[in-house]
Design goal:
The complex is a heterodimer of chains A (91) and B (897). With 91 residues, chain A is mainly alpha-helical. In chain A, 62% of the residues lie in helices and 0% in strands. Chain A starts with 12 loop residues before the first helix and ends in a 12-residue tail after the last helix. Chain B is mainly α and 897 residues long. Chain B has five domains: 406 residues, Up-down Bundle (Sodium/glucose cotransporter), CATH 1.20.1730; 118 residues, no CATH class; 81 residues, no CATH class; 108 residues, Helix Hairpins (Orthogonal Bundle), CATH 1.10.287; 160 residues, Heat Shock Protein 90. Helices cover 67% and strands 5% of the residues of chain B. Chain B contains 36 helices and nine strands. Classes of the chains: A mainly alpha (91), B mainly alpha (897). At the A-B interface, helix 1, helix 2 and helix 3 of A face helix 5, helix 11, helix 12, helix 14 and helix 30 of B.
């Protein structure tokens, strides 16, 4: 099927904000991947330099950050719910 | 806490779950299902991801490998916070296509293929069996812990008997609540609410033990962190490959495990629940993981060396005399195990019955009437119940055969890897229209083979299935086929090695085979619907015509959906079509709807086959697909044409409006002219009449006589000139003019024009460039001179500067010559520039002009006849006119000479 629907190229402020929120939501997992890959760089240091509870706190801290980000974004997105449900299109 | 008391509590807990499930089913049946389908229940139901392997095993995992255990929860966390990528699409597709299981998803996407459904089902069952065995093991182990307190040390038969009873109990619960209704889209309210309750119990239990450990034993978070730092647990190991691989593996397994697919997609009541689940489920996982390391550290500190770290969650409270806490913890583990087993068996049983049993049964029913006469509904329900029992038996047997040893603990991740083999087909199916069924099958089988060879078979232990010799030297002595060093890649962790090769080759086969094969029409149709699920595009109906009556379809549907629901569906459709009665017209649309409805019960492949048998198999063809595409293209073209046409009309309308404005202005001008011309004609006529009256009366001197006669003569000349002009214009306009070709110099012509224009008074200064005027022209020079005279005399008449000055400029370019007459007066207002060339138009005060406003109109007519033009040049110092002459005359007037 051809994409025959002509979509608006520019949106009003509310819809625009919604799209950007969606972009942010899509980026959260990548932030998570980057932050969770950082510990990989630690372990190659000196063997006696043990990473103990600080590593634990780091990982759980990143986890909390991801949860909070997801929660905030989801609440914001829901508060403006119903403007448009399209996945593709305009900015 | 006596062992018997534990049995009673466990049984009581089971009864409680039965009651809750029963009440939920009752309420749902009465239509009070609102609170059942809240985002919180949905989120809690996702928690079946945390099985007993998590509940007990995570602590053991942490005791052995440190922080690596969190990877199992970080993967799903990333998938859920990134739900906008995959999960949302998955849920939407699941709802749009009435998907019943992950096997159904793959089968449906690739042309409702029965074979693919079977392959995915087989992979899922193989991968899930050890996992179910693992759950049975943890429950029996935790029972054994309590038995041990009473001094009873269990032998193998005790374990086996307990495991058997647990398996039977779970099978009964699952059959009662999981296979009662057939339409999977109606969802299993009872089961979902039960697992939601269990989710709360296991979270509470783990958090309670954690709080007890951190505050009760260690004495606060600070002390706890110190103890962690001082413990023997190596929080970080150096194998970074495992860290990343396991995050990927757990995230992928979260999507591919049949039980996760069941709760995530099939049981999803509302897509918006994902908004909450996207952060609430990661939070749940976070809570489940928070106290794992503390429990492991304290367990290693307190308990004697050699005690099983997998049971620390129960044994640590017991060792501190906290019987109640231990009991809660036991219930948490029990909940984890049971909820996982129930959902997993429901999901697997649906897959087995829809994709293996029913197709096989259908293939034995040769003629189409079998679909109607055989009791399909009972066959399917029976096959589901038997599948539940069968899967439970498989799990139990695996438990028996493997001996329930520590080898089982390692199998969790291997089981994950098996399930994840479905990921490439699933992702490609959702995002790539080019993925074909052949490619998916090739990828799945390749992945399955590599997983079996590198991970599953070796997991039974050395010499169990694969001999030591093969492990070291490879299959048939081929060293590149060593299970843990495929293609000579050695030195990797066996698990990472298995994940890497199976996923890599799986995806590679999928892509290559998809690129070289051609999908069938139904496959292409489904591919488009899956990939474009968010675009509400019109799709081709999967059926083109039906050689059957609505009655036959109704009979068949009743056999599957039940009579009330089937009749409801048909009546609804009949109403939609505007027909009286309950039998609708059998349209392709309706068949498609019906098929989708049936697919919710028996899976897409089976539903398609059943309908195909009944209506004679006139399924969609490539031509139909192309026809639909053509139709869409035609509509698009038509709308484009309409748009172009309306644009054209708009242009015409604009031109018409401009013309109308001009006409109106002209009409006003004409009125003005008529009054002007009557005035012009009347003034000389009046003086002629009055002076001729005087002359007739006589009685005057000769001098007066001569004066009056000359006045009469002048007025008559003025009249004649006016009439000449009118005549001249009318001749020019009618094309009756005769042009006389002559050749002469432009400068001579201008000299002549200046002389004729009567610049005797010397008021108007004229500046010329004689060099530029040295041009030889061939045209009707008299007529051209008339134009020049007109323009020059206009300048002398109308230029209102104190020292009037006219500049005559000659420009030569490749098209011809331009002669500009530019004066230094105030020029002509913009709004009049259009009108001055019209007949009868007079911008300036008429009395001064002495003409009738025909001069410029005549000029323009003449120039048109000569093949040139005269225009007003805006933007000069004063009024400026340009006369354009073509170099080569190509005017039609030439033919008339």
């Amino acid at each position: 099927m051809s994409r025959q629907k002509t979509q608006a190229i520019f949106l009003e402020k509310a819809s625009y904000r919604k799209r950007r929120l969606r972009d942010a939501a899509k980026l959260v997992p990548f932030l998570g991947i980057v932050l969770l890959a950082i510990p990989l760089a630690w372990s190659s240091n000196a063997p006696d330099d043990r990473i103990g509870s600080s590593g634990l706190l780091y990982v759980f801290g990143v986890w909390v950050l991801l949860i909070v980000l997801a929660a905030v974004l989801s609440v914001w997105m829901r508060s403006g719910h119903g403007a448009d449900g399209q996945d593709t299109g305009a900015n | 806490m006596s062992f018997n008391a534990l049995i009673v509590v466990a049984l009581g807990y089971v009864v409680f779950l039965f009651a809750i499930a029963f009440i939920a089913e009752r309420r749902a049946a009465n239509g009070h299902s609102n609170w059942l389908s809240s985002p919180w229940i949905y989120t809690l139901s996702l928690s079946i991801y945390c099985t007993a392997w998590t509940f007990y095993g995570a602590v053991g995992y942490a005791a052995r490998s440190g922080l690596e255990f969190v990877t199992i929860y970080l993967g799903p966390t990333l998938v859920m916070v990134g739900w906008w990528w995959v999960v949302r699409r998955l849920v939407r597709i699941g709802r749009a296509q009435r998907i019943t299981s992950i096997a159904d998803l793959v089968s449906s996407r690739f042309g409702k293929s029965t074979q693919l459904g079977m392959i995915v089902t087989v992979i899922s069952v193989i991968a899930a069996t050890p996992y179910i065995a693992l759950q049975l093991q943890s429950v029996t182990l935790s029972f054994a812990v309590f038995a041990q307190i009473e001094g009873v040390t269990w032998d193998q038969p005790d374990f086996n008997v307990t495991a058997m009873w647990v398996a039977i109990g779970l099978a009964v619960f699952t059959i009662i609540f999981g296979t009662r209704n057939l339409d999977a889209n109606e969802r299993h309210h009872g089961v979902v609410i039960a697992i939601a309750v269990e989710a709360i119990v296991k979270l509470l239990a783990l958090v309670a033990v954690g709080v007890f450990v951190v505050w009760g034993i260690a004495g606060g978070p600070g002390e706890m962190l110190t103890r962690i730092d001082n413990s023997d647990i190596e929080l970080w190991n150096d194998d970074s490959g495992r860290w990343i691989s396991l995050i990927f593996l757990s995230g992928a397994a979260f999507l591919c495990l049949p039980r996760m697919f069941q709760v995530l997609v099939v049981e999803n009541a509302d897509e918006r629940h994902l908004h909450v689940a996207s952060w609430a489920f990661p939070l749940y996982l976070f809570m489940m993981s928070l106290f794992v390391v503390p429990i492991a550290v304290i367990g290693l500190d307190l308990l004697p060396a050699g005690s099983n770290p997998d049971l620390f969650v129960v044994t640590v409270p017991l060792s501190q005399g906290q019987g109640g806490l231990a009991l809660l913890s036991f219930l948490g583990g029990f909940s984890s195990a049971t909820s996982m087993v129930i959902v997993a068996t429901i999901a697997l049983a649906t897959m087995v019955s829809n994709h293996i049993v029913t197709p096989v049964w259908l293939s034995f029913q040769a003629n189409q009437h079998a679909v109607m006469s055989g009791d399909v509904r009972n066959v399917i329900l029976l096959s589901r119940r038997l599948s539940v029992a069968g899967i439970m038996v498989l799990g139990f047997l695996y438990y028996r055969v493997s001996g329930g040893g520590t080898a089982l603990a390692a199998i969790g991740l291997i089981s994950f890897t098996g399930a994840v083999q479905i990921l490439p087909a699933m992702i490609a199916g959702m995002f790539w229209r080019g993925a074909t069924g052949v490619g998916a099958a090739a990828g799945l089988l390749t992945g399955l083979a590599i997983w079996m060879w590198t991970l599953f078979l070796p997991s039974f232990g050395v010499d169990a299935v694969i001999s030591q010799a093969v492990m070291e030297n490879g299959l048939m002595g081929l060293s590149w086929l060593r299970p843990q060093a495929l293609f000579g890649v050695s030195g990797l962790d066996p698990l990472v090695h298995g994940i890497m090769w199976s996923m890599l080759l799986n995806a590679t086969m999928l892509i290559i085979c998809s690129l070289v094969t051609f999908p069938g029409p139904l496959e292409r149709l489904q591919g488009a619907q899956f990939v474009n699920v968010f675009e509400h595009s019109s799709a081709a109906p999967a059926w083109t015509g039906a050689a059957t009556g609505a009655e036959d379809l109704l009979i068949m549907s009743q056999r599957i959906l039940g009579s009330t629901e089937a009749q409801g569906l048909f009546t609804q459709e009949a109403v939609r079509q505007g027909k009286v009665g309950y039998l609708p017209e059998v349209t392709p649309d309706f068949i498609e709807r019906l098929e989708r409805e049936l697919a919710g019960s028996v899976g897409a492949a089976t539903a398609h086959a059943m309908i195909g048998q009944l209506i004679g198999g006139s399924s969609v063809s490539v031509e139909d697909l192309i026809a639909v595409a053509d139709e869409a293209a035609q509509i698009l073209e038509y709308s484009n044409r309409l748009e172009a046409k309306s644009k054209e009309q708009e242009q015409t309308a604009r031109a018409l409006r401009a013309a109308n404005d001009k006409l109106t202005a002209l009409s006003i001008q004409k009125d003005a002219f008529l009054s002007q011309i009557s005035h012009e004609l009347r003034t000389p006529m009046t003086s002629i009449r009055s002076f001729s009256d005087i002359l007739r009366d006589g009685e005057m001197g000769d001098e007066d006589h001569a004066r009056y006669a000359s006045i009469i003569h002048d007025e008559a000349v003025r009249l004649t000139r006016l009439l000449d002009d009118l005549l001249d214009l009318s001749v020019l306009e009618n094309g009756q003019v005769v042009l006389h070709e002559q050749t002469g110099k432009l400068s001579d012509l201008l000299d002549r024009a200046m002389r004729a224009a009567g610049l005797h008074d010397g008021v108007l200064q004229v500046s010329r460039d004689r060099a530029a005027e040295d041009i030889t022209l061939t045209a009707d020079l008299d007529r051209l001179a008339q134009v020049f005279i007109n323009l020059i005399s206009n300048a002398s008449k109308y230029c209102d500067a104190a020292e009037p000055h006219l500049r005559i400029k000659v420009i030569e370019d490749k098209d011809g010559y331009a002669v500009d007459f530019i004066d230094n007066g105030s020029g002509i207002a913009r709004k009049n520039q259009e009108l001055i060339f019209e007949k009868f138009s007079r911008v300036a005060d008429g009395s001064k002009a002495g003409g009738a406003g025909l001069g410029l109109a005549i000029c323009r007519e003449i120039m048109h006849r000569l093949g040139g033009d005269v225009l007003y040049l805006a933007g000069q110092d004063g009024a400026a006119f340009r006369v354009r002459l073509p170099k080569v005359k190509k005017s039609e007037a030439l033919e008339q000479t």
